[in-house]
Amino acid sequence: MTDKAEIADSNDLQQGHPAQGQFIYSPTANPSAAASTTTAAVPPPTNEVKGNNGLPPPQQQHHPGSNSNGKADGKDLQVEEAEHHEHKDEISPELEALLNTDPMHGLDDAEVEKRLADFGPNELKEDKKNPLLKFLGYFTGAIAYLIEVACIISAVVGDWLDFGIILALLLVNASIGFIEEAKAESALDALRQTLALKTRCWRNGHLVELDTVALVPGDVIVLRLGDIIPADGRLLGIGATGEATEGDLLIDQSALTGESLPINKKKGDVVYSSSIVKQGQQMAVVTKTGVNTFIGRAANLISITTDEGHFQKIINKIGNFLILITVVLVGIILIYQLVHFHGTEEGKVLTVLGKVLVLTVAAIPVGLPTVMSVTMAVGAKQLAAKKVIVKRLTAVEEMASVSVLCSDKTGTLTLNELTFDEPYLTNNYTADDILLYSYLAAEPGANDPIELAVRTAAEEQLPLLQNRTHKHDVPGFKVTSFLPFNPATKLTQATITNKESGETFKVAKGAPQVIIKLVGGDDDAVRAVNVLAKRGLRALGVARTRGGSMDEFELIGMISLIDPPRPDSAETIARCKHMGVDVKMVTGDQLIIAKEVSHRLGLTRVILDANHLVDPDKSDEEVTEHCIRADGFAQVIPEHKYRVVELLQKRGIIVGMTGDGVNDAPALKKANVGIAVHGCTDAARSAADIVLLAPGLSTIVDGLMTSRAIFQRMRSYALYRITSTIHFLIFFFVVVMAYDWSLPARLLILICILNDLATLVIAVDNAQLSPHPDKWRIGQLIFMSFTLGILLTALSFAHFFIFWKHFHYEPLTTPGNGPEHRLESVMYLHISSAPHFVIFSTRLTGYFWVNLPSPMFAAVIIGTQIIALLMVVFGGLTPKIPFSQAIVILLISFMYFIFLDVVKVQLFKMWSFELTAQFVRTPARRKKLKERTVRKKQQEAVWKDIDKIREVVLKLKCLEALNEQPQEEGQTMEDPQVWEEKRRTMEEEHNADKREIGEEEIKGMEVANAEEHRNLADQNGAGGSGTEAVGAVDEKHEYVEGEQQHVQGQR
């Protein structure tokens, strides 16, 4: 883990001799705040020392070439080259033997045909799914199967009304899902579009142009500026005609590996298919083609990712439960009816099936899939208005449950463009000066990201370069000669004339070690470059000649370049954390760069390299713990990103993934919710479930909030519908078995249709957002449904027996619509209203009045029951009953939902995972409970260590205040009682913080607290981490107590 000691050279700081221009990154620093450079005010050469970024100047004058590092041995410091870590592809000996092709002849036709048969064409194939089969796939699932069985039975018994209604609901539900998701593009098609179409290749002794699909391992291809590399290959270090090449090939492989900076590739290095040549020309021998390439393996990961969605799993669990109780209870009724009425007209199979069918259709939540789909479709439309396009409808629900958001760095959290960062300056030059001199030494129109970053920064920040008539002119200066970048010298050089003073001077810009050597050596500059390198920043040296000399150069400073975070990335991460979503950076970029960006984004520097993901000495369980506790991983390839997501999912975590490149596509596809950001590649867009059309990541928070609102609506409907089903089945099971009585089929179907259609408006209801990721908690859902369903059943039996025994409404089994069947009207109104009003309660976990329903939702629910009221009062489909009785039934149903609301709130208060684990002791729950207990103990131990360190910090502050002398007349030292009061307040706030931490936050907090542990120890000189830090703090604690006693004795 990177310590903060890596950020600055501790030797210099401890000796009171900071390097000239030494700085530590400050997010608030602004280079443009320096004094503007004008034509008449170019700073003259000077030996004066100027401190930068708020640090004091050195205690001695600094001259270029002097050793000012305080070293006794006098050895010169060296610029440390940052080691570049890159994934190495293994090549088998058999394949290696095929790569010894003569570069100037290439393969002959016979050999090409043989290798084409062995390795196949250089393309990515896709097995496309038949659209009809895809549509039929929407008719699968537990609830869908039950509805389809009911549909078949209704056709067998000739109940064509039920058949039409059920079939229509099935088609509507499937159509919504199919139409919404038919917009998704093929990920493999998009990957193919990233490949080059033509390439230049040596065949039969001739340099020819051919389709990239015809390449085979061993082919010799020519790579030059602007080419998209057509296959994985190994550089040969020679040009197209066999001549030796100067310098390296500059390759942009950011879309493949996530590296923010172009990579220098030399002879023998591997270049990857679909990366882009930014500078240079070389030949390469093809090593891998098609599905065996780097990008081909990513395509294969996408094609094998066909996991069932989280939402579909939940719906299937609910469906399996409903199927179980429906089949059991209806099956008992079926057997009873067949046995009891055996030999009679009522005992015929089709007659009994007809009766049972009506109960089954009324019990089955045929509207559940439709209501869920409509709710998600409405949410998708709301997100589309915020430029968030939902490609897979169920992703809207799954996003609400995301507790870990893995994010690519380059192009997602960052801008994927090099920008000017805080520079190192010397010799009294300013930030504007180094920008101007860098611009003068920049090659106009060069297709180089570093030159582009320099020119862009200068044009944006220097007033001198704004509002110019000619873009290539610099007012007041004239470039008389220009030496472009040469890979051998590693610098550019320009000869400049100041039009106002007539002075002519040279400016050089290039690699730091070259510029430092040009000025005669500068240990402070070397130290500054090494600090920048340790932070992952690219440095460029800038120097100019001294006045009166065209050969003697002096150092201006060092430009630092970085791919900066997007303006809203840090805020988005903070808001995600506030909503209970842990953000992890997963990048192919270098470890030091990842740590620097992580720091700027407000994450800790707990970034691990990819070796932790493939360590053969660690089990999957240990690697998963790394994934949970770390803030991210660096130097990863697509397979590693895929593995991170997969391991977290196996732990039961709902994972979101954001990305923009080809290397992100497999992880985007594997994640529960894949989010492709603005400006992403076609491959990422096609693999993702959600696509952001607006720049930045702030819309992710909008998506989280919208999805949580949708989740609450769907969960409230599910709780209501399962409760209604349980109530319906239990009540009718008992009355059919005991009294052979049931409601007429027309009334049962009417209840089913009217109530389910009315609840469709739940899609626009008000919702109370959860502060943490949502979970379905199926056990809790079913337990609550059973409890509420049984209480509703009790109310139904009360109505049944009171109106039978007291009002003498007989439960007749003969068909009819006369006054003697008034019990049917009573029970119809009750069964229609009592469960339906419960939806006002199931909307929230708290009391229903905390967040009132939307006017439209309330009006539709109440309006549906008013229709039922008018039907039983005026008759028609049911016998008439007195208005007074009808209104009392309706009021009782309404008041009873308030009683059920109180019961629901108390059940939610009592419910906990520990309670579930005790009552339903499954192996998985016991294991999870044990892990939570262990984590809680670990957390308590960490808090004790932090408490001890904070106590020492507070005592040190007290000691400093006691030793501090009054600075002004009348100023007095602070009363120790005041310090004691402050200490007590701090303890109370700290304890309050600990009390506020719930179960959701305990997971993964050890790393964050350990980081704070180290930071606090470092602030007080403890150094190190873990037990060593605590030991150092204990020593300091004893020292502070002794000092306090000494000071009190003096007073």
UniProtKB/TrEMBL annotation:
Bias-annotated ranges (Low complexity): 26-41
Region (Disordered): 1-74, 987-1051
Keywords, sorted A to Z: ATP-binding, Hydrogen ion transport, Ion transport, Magnesium, Membrane, Nucleotide-binding, Translocase, Transmembrane, Transmembrane helix, Transport
Entry EC number(s): 7.1.2.1
Main location: membrane
Residue ranges of the TM segments: 135-157, 163-179, 318-336, 356-378, 718-739, 745-769, 781-807, 857-877, 883-903
Compartments where located: Cell membrane; Membrane
Record-linked InterPro entries: ATPase_P-typ_cation-transptr_N, ATPase_P-typ_cyto_dom_N, ATPase_P-typ_P_site, ATPase_P-typ_TM_dom_sf, ATPase_P-typ_transduc_dom_A_sf, ATPase_P-type_domA, HAD-like_sf, HAD_sf
Coiled-coil intervals, chain numbering: none
Top-level taxon of the source organism: Eukaryota
Pfam family, one: Cation_ATPase_N
Gene3D superfamilies in the cross-refs: Calcium-transporting ATPase, cytoplasmic domain N, Calcium-transporting ATPase, cytoplasmic transduction domain A, Calcium-transporting ATPase, transmembrane domain, HAD superfamily/HAD-like
Biased composition regions of type Basic and acidic residues, renumbered to the chain: 987-1016, 1033-1044
Domain Cation-transporting P-type ATPase N-terminal residues, every copy: 85-159
Presence of the UniProt keyword Translocase in the record: yes
Keyword Ion transport attributed: yes
Membrane-protein topology: Multi-pass membrane protein
Function text: The plasma membrane ATPase of plants and fungi is a hydrogen ion pump. The proton gradient it generates drives the active transport of nutrients by H(+)-symport. The resulting external acidification and/or internal alkinization may mediate growth responses.
This protein's name: Plasma membrane ATPase
